[in-house]
Amino acid sequence: MTDPEVPVLTIEDLGVLRSVSVDDDGGVHVELTPTYSGCPAMDAMRDDVVLALTHAGYDEVDVRMVLSPAWTTDWMSESGKDKLRTYGIQAPSGSAPVRDAGPIRVQLAVKCPRCDSLNTRELARFGSTSCKALYECRDCLEPFDYFKVL
């Protein structure tokens, strides 16, 4: 199943698919964690999971949204990050910061997914979705989304 907002990613690539289990009676139980609690794509993802499993022959499908622990870009697969870059969205770089006392890492540059230049600038903190920022490459002059480290 693909992410409705980024169709080159599966929900497994994205790290949204947390678990799948089949009970003794043949019922399927799926846990999804949204990229953020207000993610508008979660209803579509849930419906897609139910539809796919129903078509696969499962009569009882239970999809549960799990908000804790909160989703992090650390859960994205390396394959998913590669697919994002190929699609023209720069994948998150680094790991989500540990939320304890001390210095906070600041990202200095975001590499352009088209020409690999570091000569980029942020145009908008929020891009096509809240989990992405809009950047522009100053070398190839192309705008691109950057999937934020969360």
From TrEMBL:
MIP18 family-like domain sequence ranges: 2-54
Domain of life from the UniProt record: Bacteria
Domain (PaaD zinc beta ribbon) ranges: 106-148
UniProt xrefs under Gene3D superfamilies: Fe-S cluster assembly (FSCA)
Protein name (Swiss-Prot/TrEMBL): Phenylacetate-CoA oxygenase subunit PaaJ
